[in-house]
Design goal:
Number of strands: 40
CATH topology of one domain: C8orf32 fold
Largest sheet: 11 strands, mixed
CATH architecture of one domain: Roll
Structural class: alpha+beta
Distance between the termini: 30 Å
Oligomer: single chain
Shape: elongated
């Protein structure tokens, strides 16, 4: 994502994660711990319009634009005008250089006690800066000396080459039409040559020899069959008997036809489903925990076609065979009487050594016979109330036409309901859902044979071989392709475990430099080196080579199955923090697992010290990981509903989502000068599906893929907003908002790209993305110009395959995900203030309140007033009608809480940082309301300006509609369901500048309300929620 300043925000120069954490704390209550980290503090003392390095970078950008214009000019007058622009920029650069050199002197003083290595890095940085600056000035002088247009253009090319070589790197990852994140895998068809006639083959003996006797390996723990307390308790719950355990797994767990070993017994147990390998692992683990030897058998089987279709949940014989073949099973069809009668395929089942001769497995006891058992094979019944022809498909373009609260799935259900109202008015949309139920088998004994014909046994394993396991590899490379770190593990060892990628100081010298500056993000990145660390549930499992802080690296994920390898690529920054969540098919863990993790996180929140890297992982890593897992879980639930209503089976590959702490890096001629936390970004890298139409109608694939892709994009902003209580942006939302802002949205195709693409007022990177996919036969859905959301400027866009609906759902910057847009530009000193503020506040995950003065706790409890104080209505009981007239609200969620003004106790603390004397209630009333959003805004502003020795007085009040009609003032002084406040700047030695207050208020509010001049020289008016900022003088706030 690219963040760009507008004029008003040039007062505000850097980016802060802490603001979004503090203001919109979300369900995980992370503000206190994260903001308390010295790593998120940046040392600064005053709000600046622009720092010298930003001015230098701005001038370099202007020079780049000027030389592009020079290449196109046609007249001498135009050329002289552009040369004059370059002369002015050169003069400005000289001025910036003087300020920058003062910074270099300050740095030398700061690091004088550090190692020679750190000092040499600073010298090298200064030398490189001087070389680049001198080259630029020399090139500009050469343009000035050039006399003819041709000579000027020659020199311009030199400047262009130099600036290209020294420009900051781009994080943008170009799309590849061959492997989009939202991918639809091709359904492979069983070849005609594989059709065989019944009787044209010989059936070998199933077992060439007697199965070997039980060995210790048949009772041993393995990666897939851990004998944990959870497994032992489940085995005991079902009697520890062979038949009881078999019927439990066979009748309870869904069959999912993916490839290889992925989940293992524990995750299969928790997710209530798996393929033949994982269901076998679960049953084997339960057997071994009960003292029953058990192992895996791989063989070739024949299944009657009707049973096979029931098992797989489809209604077409060819589709049943194609499904198994596409998923890596050696499969062929048997023809009898001119039609398909049998599927022959490779399969896995369980062999257990049970007490069979006397009890048929109904009781525990010493074993006497090896029995073949298949917990994965089961027939199913179909329930579907209504089946109609002509059912509409998801209308993507209408869904994208305006910002909607309903999800794509809900929107599609409305479409279906409208169709049913016209064609089957007595039904609701759920009547179209096709659902499957397992036909239970409760014989009470083991019958001693498989439910199909076994032709051969190809292998017997006590433990699953490595070649059968799906694997995950994480690799970090530099821009030259050299590997800095690689780690590979089987998926059963990783599923539902927190994987994080973070960076630690490479040496003690680097650690000392970070400590000197007070944190990683306060340290100039060119001074230090970091080493990447991969952790699994907080434990380091891999460590990479050192690299300079803020340097770009390439992050690759390799997903290896027994049938293929898929590679996902990202661009990352050394110093950022990444949580990686893998989702195993219909999994992502049970809801209870996520609740348990959240509760464990809450239990340690008060003891976490984020200066300790271990607790950083426990806190930030867990929050980001839980965010990704909640996203996976919500998408999985929606996919099950979408598939049922679309008459398809969605076989989802292992998917991957990253939530990460993003930074903004500032550069001097391509060398990192400063790294600042910017926001949380969600990026869905792998969302691959095999879509199986249950009736063989391949036309069902594309509409489902479009519906699922839109829903996945919708959840990227919707789930993120719910988790973090702030606004987020996704591709779908970006397009919807463009429509609502009257920005035309275009569908760019091969037929119109040459005329349409040049007219789009969007970044060249996005244009290149569009060009690349259209060259592959795709199309793009993109707004005509950039969208502004809070402080984010860019576009959301969709690159889509017209054949099968697979797509990239992108936001500016190349991410397929969501960015929290209110983690935006704010001054360094505000970061410091936020850190101090949050580290001394009681920040909660629920809506806040203020307690009455004199109480021990005054921020963020659950109800409207403290439990130890009278309530607002009790205090007003003598005149209830008048009380309601003055203070009742139509939406208490926004207008809470009510503060009682103690006029005779000016020193009483209304909040942690605000005394009663700092506030004035409207019209001198004894009560005043401060809504949630206004509270969090003013509370921080009061703290900040007090902390910097400025004076500030807040007047806050709420007018009901009834009361507003009886008092003077503009009609829109009433703020429905909210509150307004006047912030008055008071005297003293250092009163704040009005531009500072306006800029900070406008940033804190974003697009949720307004910050106005209010007419008085000393007063700012804010309202949240309210109309968007209508102040025409907004761009004159800059403090010059």
């Amino acid at each position: 994502m690219e963040f760009r300043n507008n004029r008003a925000l040039r007062v505000i120069s850097t980016i802060v994660l802490a603001l979004f954490i503090w203001t919109f704390c979300g369900i995980f209550e992370i503000a206190h711990a994260i903001s308390n980290s010295s790593e998120l503090r940046v040392q600064s003392s005053e709000l600046k319009a622009q720092k010298p390095e930003e001015k230098l970078q701005r001038d370099i950008e202007d020079i780049t634009q000027t030389i592009e214009r020079i290449k196109k000019i046609k007249t001498h007058e135009e050329l002289q005008g552009e040369k004059e622009n370059l002369r002015q920029k050169r003069q400005e650069i000289e001025g910036h250089d003087a300020e920058i050199r003062k910074q270099f002197q300050d740095t030398e003083e700061k690091i004088k006690g550090l190692s020679d290595e750190i000092k040499q890095r600073h010298k090298d940085f200064v030398k490189k800066y001087e070389e680049n600056l001198n080259t630029l000035k020399r090139n500009l002088d050469d343009i000035e000396k050039a006399e003819t247009a041709e000579e000027v253009k020659v020199e311009v090319e030199k400047v262009k080459t130099f600036l290209e070589k020294t420009k900051p790197p781009s994080r943008h990852t170009p799309p590849k039409a061959s492997k989009p994140p939202n991918r639809v895998r091709e359904l492979k068809r069983v070849r005609t040559s594989w059709l065989e006639k019944l009787g044209d083959f010989l059936i070998p003996s199933v077992y060439a020899a007697e199965p070997p006797p039980p060995s210790p390996a048949d009772l041993a723990e393995t990666l897939e069959t851990p004998l944990t307390q959870e497994i032992r308790e489940m085995a005991a719950k079902h009697g520890n008997t062979p038949v009881g355990l078999y019927e439990y797994v066979r009748n309870t767990f869904k069959y999912e036809p993916y490839v290889g070993s992925v989940k293992g017994a524990i995750q299969t147990l928790r997710e209530n489903g798996g393929n033949e390998w994982d269901l076998a692992s679960l049953l084997i683990a339960l057997y071994r925990a009960s003292g029953i030897p058990a192992r895996y058998v791989v063989g070739t089987v024949e299944i009657p076609i009707e049973q096979a279709m029931s098992w797989l949940g489809v209604e077409d014989a060819n589709i049943a065979a194609d499904l198994l073949y596409t998923q890596g099973r050696h499969t062929s069809l048997i023809i009898s009487g001119g039609k398909i009668s049998v599927i022959r395929t490779q399969h896995v089942w369980v062999q257990a050594y049970v007490s069979f001769l006397h009890t048929r497995g109904a009781a525990s006891g010493p074993g006497d016979t090896w029995i073949d058992i298949d917990p994965s094979f089961k027939t199913q019944t179909v329930s579907q109330t209504l089946s109609l022809n002509g059912i509409p498909t998801f209308d993507q373009m209408t869904y994208l036409s305006t910002l909607r609260t309903e999800s794509p799935l809900d929107f599609y259900r409305i479409q279906l309901q409208n169709f049913l109202d016209a064609n089957a008015s007595n039904y609701v949309a759920d009547a179209l859902s096709r659902n499957l139920e397992i036909v239970p088998e409760n014989l009470g004994i083991l019958i001693g044979q498989l439910p199909y014909k076994a032709l051969s046994v190809d292998a017997i394993y006590s433990a699953i071989p490595s070649a059968i396991r799906q694997k995950f590899t994480l690799t970090i490379l530099d821009n030259l392709g050299f590997t800095h770190l690689t780690y590979t593990a089987p998926l059963p060892a990783l599923v539902n475990k927190r994987i994080t990628l973070s960076y630690a100081p490479a040496t003690s010298a680097d650690a000392s430099a970070i400590a000197t500056y007070g944190g990683l993000y306060a340290t100039p990145p060119y001074l230090i080196q970091l080493k990447p660390q991969v952790k699994l549930d907080g434990q380091i499992i891999a460590e990479g080579n050192p690299i300079g802080a803020a340097q770009e690296q390439k992050l690759e994920f390799h997903f290896e199955s027994p049938t293929d390898i898929d590679i996902v690529q990202n661009t990352i920054i050394a110093g950022e923090y990444y949580a990686i969540a893998l989702n195993a098919y219909a999994g992502s863990g049970s809801h209870q697992e996520i609740i348990d993790r959240a509760q464990r996180l809450a239990a340690i929140q008060d003891t976490i010290n984020l200066n300790d890297p271990i607790t950083l992982n426990d806190r930030l890593g867990e929050v980001l990981y839980l965010s990704a897992m909640l996203y996976h879980q919500n998408l999985n639930m929606a996919e099950r509903k979408m598939a049922a209503i679309s008459s398809v089976i969605d076989i989802k590959d292992v998917s991957e989502m990253m939530y990460f702490l993003t930074t903004k890096v500032e550069y001097f001629f391509g060398i990192p000068k400063k790294m600042t936390p910017v926001s949380i970004t969600a990026d869905m890298d792998r969302n691959s599906h095999l879509i199986i139409p249950i009736d063989g109608d391949l036309n069902r694939i594309k509409p489902y893929a479009i519906l699922e892709g839109n829903h996945a994009s919708y959840l990227e902003h919707n789930a993120t907003e719910k988790m973090y209580k702030t606004e987020a942006l996704s591709a779908v939302k970006g397009i919807q908002l463009a429509h609502d802002q009257n920005i035309p949205v275009h569908t760019v195709t091969a037929q119109n790209i040459n005329t349409l693409l040049p007219t789009l007022q969007i970044s060249e990177q996005v244009k290149t993305d569009i060009q690349n996919v259209i060259n592959s036969g795709w199309y793009a859905i993109v707004p005509e110009s950039n969208l502004t959301v809070g402080d984010w400027i860019g576009v959301g866009y969709i690159l889509q395959n017209p054949e099968n609906g697979e797509a990239y759902y992108r936001i500016e910057g190349g991410h397929g995900g969501a960015v929290l847009v209110y983690a935006a530009y704010i001054a360094d000193m505000v970061i410091t203030a936020l850190s101090d503020f949050a580290s001394n506040s009681i920040i909660g995950a629920i809506r806040p309140k203020l307690c009455f003065p004199g109480q021990d706790n005054w921020l963020f409890t659950k109800d409207d007033t403290c439990y130890t104080s009278v309530t607002f209505y009790e205090a007003c009981s003598v005149d209830k009608d008048n009380c309601l007239y003055k203070y009742d609200v139509s939406h208490p969620e926004f207008a809470r809480p009510l503060i009682y003004v103690y006029e005779n106790a000016p020193e009483a603390q209304l909040t942690k940082y605000i005394k009663a004397s700092d506030w004035q209630s409207q019209d001198g009333a004894p009560y005043m309301r401060v809504g949630y959003a206004v509270l969090t805004t003013i509370e921080f502003m009061m703290y900040y300006f007090k902390a910097t020795n400025h004076g500030l007085l807040a007047g806050s009040g709420y007018r009901t509609k009834t009361r507003n009609s009886s008092v003077g003032g503009a009609p829109r002084s009433h703020h429905p369901d909210g509150v307004a406040a006047d912030i008055t700047l008071t005297g003293g030695p250092n009163p704040p500048r009005k531009c500072d207050v306006l800029s900070l208020a406008d940033y804190l509010i974003g697009g949720k309300g307004e910050a106005l001049h209010e007419g008085k020289a000393s007063t700012v008016h804010i309202a949240i929620p309210g109309k968007n900022n209508r102040d025409g003088h907004k761009y004159k706030w800059s403090c010059q």
